[in-house]
Each structure stands twice: as structure tokens, then as C-alpha cells.
Amino acid sequence: MKKALTLLVFIITLTSFAQKKAVNNDNPTKFMNTITAEKLKTKLTIVASDEMEGRDTGSKGQKKAGNYLIEQYKKSGIPFPKGASSYYQSVPASFMNARYGTLPDSENIWAYIEGSEKPNEVLVISAHYDHVGIKGGEVYNGADDDGSGTVAVLQIAEAFQKAKKEGHDPKRSILFLHVTGEEHGLHGSRFYSEHPLFPIANTVADINIDMIGRRDFDHPNTNNYVYVIGADRLSSDLHNITVAQNDKYTKLDLDFKFNDPKDPNHFYERSDHYNFAKFGIPAVFLFNGVHADYHQKSDEVDKIEFDALAKRAQLAFAIAWDLANRPERIVVDKPIQK
Ligand SMILES: [Zn+2]
To answer: Which of 10, 79, 147, 314 is most buried by its number of CB atoms within 10 A?
Structure first.
């Protein structure tokens, strides 16, 4: 009897192992569709509320917003990364103020889903959660900049966690990274890239989301677009995956105007992905462009177009799904551009 039971356990173990091996992660649609305008609105209404005091780097309001993010990760059962001791990566004032400034200590916030097959290869999905605080007694809520990216990263993490719960673990690990100090000089992402939790060499890509909830001056009649910046600068694969996933799942008009290295705005150098790209990590930056409320107190939740925010977040998710699950990691086939 005992022997038979052992054999049975052995067979069950083998079977479940075989099932795990056969997990099909080809189609992200079911999980992608859990990223909805409604859920994003619920979260953004909190992240970009006056209570968060404009989320200036190191402020009480920013810490409150950070607490909210952590609460959400805990609620979804998404842990802080392996090798970390909490959801925080401290970013010291001395680092941020090395050249100039008087910022207080602040924190990046991170959460993590471990890969089932290649756990040592890590995909980063980033957005900055700081904004510019209170000026002249007015709270600058930064609903688009970058409340939109902040809640998108959170919702993308929840979608991956739901997939995991249903047996569709990502093959590679994913780090959800909410960086601080962006508005004062991309400090949080610079700190992470210089003090990475996972080796730079094992970091397969960064998907950075900064402002995806509005439309810009050049798109007065539609919000069904997104600017794609940087994808092809280091890796043809990353560009091709971005285009292919969009063709398959989101069908946004991908606008590459700002990807031109000669574009005078130089957006490629102006958000957090750049601190990954400068170390040779392929990075794609999703962005809606600049509008009249950019860095104004009027960048408020009631002006966010949640259908567009949802669709662009879904595109980020679909790109992430491919990067995390493809058999071989994407190839860097171009030199680092300075
Ligand atoms: Zn921003």
C-alpha cells in the first residue's frame, strides 16, 4: 500500500510538472482585457487627489501615494522583489542633491512577479510616481504626468498576477518599478540603474510609461494613438514586437515622430527609460505628447480620457507579455547612443 501510494504521488507530481511545462502563454487577450478604464479611474482618482499634495519628491503627500501603491500590491498578493527587504528602494537625498538641490530622502517603490522558466532574466515596467507638489497654494495633481503611468503599471501588475493565479506565470521575472524624483532630474531611475537589484546584464528591457491619459495638440480629433519612442534604438526586436503586438491586440496609431533622433524635443532623453537605455538595456517609452495642462495645476483627473489610458496600458501589457514569455530574450543589435 505504502509503495503504491508513493508511486501514485510520483505520477501526480510528474503529471502536474508536465502540465506546467505545457502552459500556453501565446494569447494575452483575456488578461489584457482586465485592464479597464473603470479600474484605472478608481485608482487615479486616489493617486491624483489633493490628499497626495502633488506628490513632490520626498514630501508627505508622495509618501502617502506610495503607501497606496503598496496597499494595492499587498491586496493583489504581489510581493516585493526577491532580494529586497520591503517594497521600498531608498533613494537618499545625498544622491539626488549631488550636483544641486535640496530634496529630502525619497523612495522608489517596487513589486515583483517571478518568472517560472527564466527567473534570472528580468523585465522592468516603469513609471514615475512623483510630480511637482504645491505651488502658490495650489496642488498640482499631475493626473496625466504621471498619475496615468503610475496606475497603468499597477493595473498591468494585477493583470499579470491574475494570469499567474490561473497558471499562466510569466516565463521571465517582471519588476514593477515606480520611480521617484523624475521631475527633478530622473533621479529615481538613475538611482535604480546605478544600484540595480537585478544585474543590468540580466535586465532584458524596460517599458516606460509617462503620460498616456490625454491627447496632444497634434491629435485634436482622436485619442487612438500613442507616441512610441526609443524602441528601435538598441533592439530591432523590441521595435518589431511593439508593432506586432499593437497590430494584433490594440490597433492604436503608433506615432514615431518623436523617435527621430533629430527631433528638437529630445523626449528620448527626458524620461526614466533613458537611464536603462544608457546602459544598453532596450527601452520603449509610451507617451501621449504635450498638452495645455502639462505641468499646470489643471492636469486633473476629470480631463483624463480613460478609454485611451486603458488602451495604451493594454499595449504596454501586450508588449510585456511577449517580452516575458518569448523563448529567447530580445537581442541588442545596435550600439548604445549617447
Ligand atoms: Zn512625467
So the answer is: 147
Separation of CA 128 and ligand 1 centre (Å)? 7
Alpha helices, H only, the chain: 2-21, 29-32, 37-47, 60-76, 93-96, 149-165, 187-194, 231-234, 236-245, 274-277, 306-325
Q: What is the pLDDT of residues 106-141, one digit of tens each?
A: 999 999 999 999 999 999 999 999 999 999 999 999
Q: CA 161, CA 157: separation in Å to the nearest integer? A: 6
Question: What are the backbone angles phi and psi of residue 287, rounded to the nearest 5°?
Answer: -155, 140
Q: What is the mean pLDDT of each run of 10 residues along the chain (338 residues)?
A: 55 52 82 98 98 98 98 98 97 96 97 98 98 98 98 98 97 98 97 98 98 97 98 98 98 97 94 97 98 98 98 98 98 88
Residue 140 CA to ligand 1 center (angstroms) comes to: 13
User: Which grid cell is 13?
Assistant: 507530481
CA 15 / ligand 1 centre spacing (Å): 48
CA of 61 to the centre of ligand 1 (A): 17
> Distance from the CA of 171 to the center of ligand 1, in angstroms?
30
Top CATH class, 30-325:
alpha beta
* Distance in Å, CA 326 to ligand 1 centroid: 30
Q: How far is the CA of 183 from the centre of ligand 1 (A)?
A: 7
Q: Closest Cα to residue 326, out of 171, 165, 173?
A: 171
Distance from the alpha carbon of residue 159 to the mean position of ligand 1, in angstroms = 23
Locus of grid cell 490625454: 214
Q: What is the pLDDT of residues 178-227, one digit of tens each?
A: 999 999 999 999 999 999 999 999 999 999 999 999 999 999 999 999 99
Q: What share of the chain is helix, strand, coil (3-state, %, to 5)?
A: 45, 15, 40
Q: Beta strands 118-128 and 225-229: pairing type?
A: unpaired
Q: How far is the CA of 323 from the centre of ligand 1 (A)?
A: 24
223 C-alpha vs ligand 1 centroid, how far in Å? 19
Helix (H) / strand (E) containing 121: strand 118-128
